[in-house]
Write a structure and sequence with these properties.
2 domains; alpha/beta; 14 strands; Rossmann fold; globular; single chain
Length: 380
């Protein structure tokens, strides 16, 4: 089958920088059995094309991006027809995908991968902040032939908007990129090693993380934290860390490639998530594949895996986050139990599983068979 994927970016020529690793893992697997063309809206400022992992990347670039993306899809369809259009993220990507599919008379699938269904006015985050955004999401959700999302909480948000979706987690490559490792007991003579993997921005809510860590310092807990992610807040989080007396307890590493991140994740004992919203995040799966459990706010996979495979606390609650971390860091039996359960899920729902789910969906849509009911709960 010839498949068109519409993405905002994440498919850089390098395969390492400015990429979405889980998306690359899926593209690589789909390209083994299908002809895959990826239409990236904003990977580079100027139009261009290149090959990556068996797929052809069509970068649209800036300036009338939506119109030119539609034209590029139609032009490639004339060369040889697409069987299906898939967008990753709703918003502009979804609108382009469903519009092109409607014109071409083929099915469209939309993976709602981020903050499209939410509206957090205080931090100006979410696809439904404006009336244009709400209208766009309404059109995309109503027009797509099929909707998918990574976690049960994201499905529940979509259900609240009247949209039924199927759960398809964006699994990781547990052989090459994130070599699966069963949980390893922590040495009792070393401080706990925590890791936080997320861009420094408002929705990831690092102030809640830092206030929880400050509470652990007051309780004389021994720990060190590695914070990995691009800084979009001009040093505000680093300044808050200094004000809270955490400067000697953590390191800010900035952006890291997968190859750079793997050894740091492998050395960690707990991944900490402090986000106000997540569709996933994939970092939970990456950590779990290496035997590292997650403690965090009740979003995405953290919420759906709790309490068996993660510990979840209310969003924005630094005191509860500190208590949950204390519980895991002072009870190795609990930490290992969570880690084993998380590891089992990550290995089961890996990148191969994700590709299989999408291929099964594509077969249903293109063959005209009736879809199975959406799955709204995690596999146990």
């Amino acid at each position: 089958m010839k498949i068109a994927l519409v993405v905002p970016g994440g498919v850089d020529r390098s395969g390492e920088y400015r990429v979405i690793p889980a998306l690359l893992a899926l593209i690589e697997r789909l390209s083994v059995r299908h002809e895959v063309h990826v239409f990236a809206l904003h990977q580079e400022p100027e139009p261009g094309a290149w090959d990556l992992l068996g797929a052809r990347i069509h970068n649209i670039g800036r300036g009338a991006t939506r119109v030119r993306a539609l034209r590029a899809i139609l032009r490639e369809h004339r060369r040889s027809p697409f069987g299906l259009l898939q967008s990753f993220f709703s918003g502009s990507c979804g609108l382009i995908a469903v519009s092109a599919a409607r014109v071409l008379g083929i099915p469209s699938a939309v993976h709602v991968a981020g903050g499209e269904p939410v509206r957090l006015r205080d931090i100006h985050y979410g696809g439904r902040l404006t009336w244009r955004g709400r209208l766009q999401e309404r059109v995309v959700l109503a027009t797509a032939s099929a909707l998918t999302a990574a976690s049960a909480p994201q499905l529940e948000l979509l259900a609240g908007l009247g949209a039924a979706a199927r759960r398809v987690p964006l699994g990781v490559d547990c052989v090459r990129d994130w070599p699966a490792r069963a949980p390893v007991p922590r040495r009792t003579d070393e401080p706990a090693r925590l890791i936080h993997v997320a861009s420094l921005n408002r929705v990831k809510d690092q102030p809640t993380l830092l206030r929880a860590l400050a509470q652990l310092v007051q309780e004389r807990q021994a720990f060190y934290v590695d914070i990995v992610g691009e800084d979009t807040l001009a040093g505000a989080i680093q300044r808050l860390a200094r004000d809270l007396g955490l400067a000697d307890r953590l390191s800010f590493h900035g952006f890291m490639t997968q190859r750079q991140l793997v050894p740091l994740m492998r050395a960690a004992h707990v991944l900490v998530v402090s986000s106000r919203h997540e569709a996933g995040p994939v970092a939970v799966l990456e950590a779990a594949a290496l035997g590292v459990p997650t403690v965090g706010t009740a979003v995405g996979h953290v919420a759906e895996w709790a309490p068996e495979a993660a510990l979840a606390v209310p969003v924005g609650d630094a005191q509860s986050l500190a208590a949950a971390l204390r519980h895991v860091l002072t009870d190795e039996v609990i930490r290992l139990r969570l880690a084993r359960a998380a590891w089992t899920r990550a290995v089961w729902e890996d990148a191969d599983y994700t590709a299989g789910c999408f291929e099964a969906l594509y077969e249903e849509l293109t063959s005209g068979r009736r879809r199975a009911p959406p799955v709204a709960v995690a596999r146990r």
